[in-house]
Amino acid sequence: MITSVHNEKVKNWLKLQDKKYRDATQTFLIESEHLVKEALKKKIVKELIVIEGYEKPQDISATYVTKEVMKKISSQVTPPKICAVCQMLEEKEVKGHVLVLDDLQDPGNVGTIIRSAVAFGIPNIVLSKESVDIYNPKVIRSCEGMIFYVNITRKNIFDFLASHQNDYLICGTDVKKGKLLEDTDLKGKDVCLIIGNEGRGMNESYQKYCETLFKIPMDERCESLNAGVSASILMYELTKK
Amino acid sequence: MITSVHNEKVKNWLKLQDKKYRDATQTFLIESEHLVKEALKKKIVKELIVIEGYEKPQDISATYVTKEVMKKISSQVTPPKICAVCQMLEEKEVKGHVLVLDDLQDPGNVGTIIRSAVAFGIPNIVLSKESVDIYNPKVIRSCEGMIFYVNITRKNIFDFLASHQNDYLICGTDVKKGKLLEDTDLKGKDVCLIIGNEGRGMNESYQKYCETLFKIPMDERCESLNAGVSASILMYELTKK
Fold first, then answer.
1. Contact between A236 and B216 using a beta-carbon 8 Å cutoff
2. Which of B14, B24, B127, B235 measures 20 to 30 Å from B65, CA to CA?
3. What is the phi/psi pair of residue B33, to 5°?
4. Cβ separation of A225 and B119 shorter than 8 Å?
């Protein structure tokens, strides 16, 4: 049982709030029973951390800690009963529909998009180099464990689009010039859908790779939707095709 | 020009971060040029606060402050050039489609929903007493000025549903038992759509008032969508009717 917040292990767990340390160790922290369950299924748990008095899952060794220690390492106001240090997820080859996130900055948006991608059967997400880190605690929290069910890779978007022009129907978004997804013939191809940055929308220089641009019809007083909402509505429409 | 963060006015502006003070004064703070523009159109600006060297809108008096003061009163990491103290919005009679928010806790979700409501032409939002305060700085920020274009009222949900059973088609949400909105005959009635709390979904005791329950079809690995996303998808489907 670890009782001191000055313990070396505790200091290292705490450092997992920091991207640099996560990258250096190729690990990240998940909090809550639900997430730990998903991570155990995926066999990526390296270390289980359990609060005193709580019953840990069978057949797994764990480190017990006091409430005070759990509070110290948790990113939440109400600390969880259980958390785990996990190995970062493997990046696999991109096959099937793919969502491209163009410099998305808000961790809540990216978490929401990961959750919706699984809900609507999109198996891949490609993030630009400038997008938020998917192992950011807020991303992990807001994707509700769905991060384990989608193949997420970080790539240079220009290179990705240029090398996939033949195998994908590449689609961007444009609030004004776009047309409706439901009226578009997808030609039986897999779709590569680009979601633009929260502030500036899609990088205009990606347009030359786009076979078509989509919009979501809306009242003119509203300039745009939240990025997580527009991505989700387009993925939802895609499942109807 | 106010140069000291200890000035009485600055102390009062800072207190607007706090719900109790907002309620007592019936005012709230908005930050950014875009929001101030919208508030000026609505004629609810009581006090304009402008950073030194910045050109304020014509024909309006303003208080100039230093960067340090602006940083002190702002809720953002990068403080704005202009902000304003505004009179709280008037609650009007509910007429036309209405969205009912059942104890929504996350300010980002509520802001997103307000933004989508305007985008999809829903003129009213009724919040339960336990829902987050709409004048919370994070709600204001995430609704992108759309708070000025929707009639938001705070009510007891049971009373509201009970007294509107005849004039509304009351619809709830249920991830399992629900049916599709697009397959539902709305009978030419205005719709009252209830969106459930982030953790527990819709309060089950509202079901007796619901003529129908909706669901959004999704992969079984995903238990539910983000509340802002599900509300937005249902409002989006409603506009197609």
1. yes
2. B24
3. -60, -45
4. yes
Residues pairing with A2 in the sheet: A65
Structure confidence by residue, pLDDT tens digits, A173-187:
998 899 999 999 999
C-alpha of B126 from chain center: 10
ipTM of this predicted complex? 0.94
What mean pLDDT is reported for chain A?
A: 95
Q: How many CA atoms lie within 13 A of A158 on its CB side?
A: 4
Shortest distance, CA B9 to any CA of chain A (angstroms): 32
Q: Exposed/middle/buried for B128, CB within 10 Å: 0-12, 13-18, 19+?
A: buried
Q: Which residues from B are below 8 Å from A229, CB to CB?
A: 112, 115-116, 228-229, 232
* Chain segment A130-167, per-residue pLDDT in tens: 999 999 999 999 999 999 999 999 999 999 999 999 99
Q: Cα–Cα–Cα angle for A171, A175, A177, nearest 5°?
A: 70
**B221–A120 CB contact, under 8 Å:** no
Q: What is the pLDDT of residue A241?
A: 85
Residue ranges per domain, chain B?
A: 8-87, 98-240
- Cβ B218–A119 below 8 Å, yes or no? yes
Average pLDDT over residues A201-217: 96
Is the CB of residue B104 less than 8 Å from the CB of residue B127?
Answer: yes
Which homologous superfamily is A98-240 in?
Answer: SPOUT methyltransferase, trefoil knot domain (3.40.1280.10)
d(CA B99, CA B93): 14
Of B118, B217, B226, the CB nearest to A228: B226
At the second CATH level, the architecture of B8-87 is: 2-Layer Sandwich (3.30)
Give the tens place of pLDDT for each residue, B46-70.
999 999 999 887 778 899 999 999 9
Task: Report which of A235, A225, A237 is spatially closest to residue A201, judged by C-alpha positions.
Answer: A225
Please state the pTM of the whole predicted model: 0.95
Report the pLDDT value the prediction gives residue B58, as an integer from 0 to 100: 74
pLDDT at position A59 over 90: no
